[in-house]
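Moderator note: this is an archived Q&A kept for reference. The question asked for a predicted structure of one protein chain; the sequence and the answer are reproduced below.
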Amino acid sequence: MQLPEWLSLTCFSFTFTNIRLTFAFLVLSSSGQAKGKFYVSIKSPKRRLNSV
Protein backbone atom coordinates (compact mmCIF):
# COMPACT_ATOMS: atom_id res chain seq x y z
CA MET A 1 0.00 0.00 0.00
CA GLN A 2 1.43 3.39 -1.00
CA LEU A 3 1.21 6.33 1.35
CA PRO A 4 0.14 9.77 0.13
CA GLU A 5 3.11 12.05 -0.47
CA TRP A 6 2.31 14.53 2.31
CA LEU A 7 1.93 11.70 4.81
CA SER A 8 5.27 10.09 3.99
CA LEU A 9 6.91 13.53 4.12
CA THR A 10 5.39 14.14 7.55
CA CYS A 11 6.59 10.77 8.79
CA PHE A 12 10.05 11.47 7.41
CA SER A 13 10.34 14.87 9.08
CA PHE A 14 9.11 13.46 12.40
CA THR A 15 11.67 10.66 12.22
CA PHE A 16 14.40 13.10 11.23
CA THR A 17 13.50 15.42 14.13
CA ASN A 18 13.47 12.50 16.58
CA ILE A 19 16.90 11.38 15.41
CA ARG A 20 18.23 14.92 15.84
CA LEU A 21 16.70 15.24 19.31
CA THR A 22 18.07 11.86 20.39
CA PHE A 23 21.53 12.73 19.10
CA ALA A 24 21.45 16.13 20.79
CA PHE A 25 20.27 14.54 24.05
CA LEU A 26 23.19 12.09 23.98
CA VAL A 27 25.65 14.91 23.34
CA LEU A 28 24.09 17.05 26.07
CA SER A 29 24.34 14.19 28.54
CA SER A 30 28.05 13.80 27.87
CA SER A 31 28.86 17.52 27.89
CA GLY A 32 26.70 20.10 29.61
CA GLN A 33 28.73 23.02 28.23
CA ALA A 34 27.38 22.52 24.69
CA LYS A 35 23.79 22.93 25.91
CA GLY A 36 23.29 26.45 24.55
CA LYS A 37 24.75 25.65 21.14
CA PHE A 38 22.62 22.56 20.67
CA TYR A 39 19.42 24.30 21.70
CA VAL A 40 20.03 26.80 18.91
CA SER A 41 20.84 24.13 16.33
CA ILE A 42 17.70 22.14 17.20
CA LYS A 43 15.32 25.06 17.24
CA SER A 44 16.33 26.77 14.01
CA PRO A 45 15.74 23.81 11.62
CA LYS A 46 12.49 23.06 13.45
CA ARG A 47 11.30 26.62 12.90
CA ARG A 48 12.18 26.33 9.21
CA LEU A 49 10.19 23.08 8.93
CA ASN A 50 7.14 24.66 10.54
CA SER A 51 7.19 27.72 8.28
CA VAL A 52 7.20 25.65 5.07
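Archived answer notes: The radius of gyration is 14 Å.
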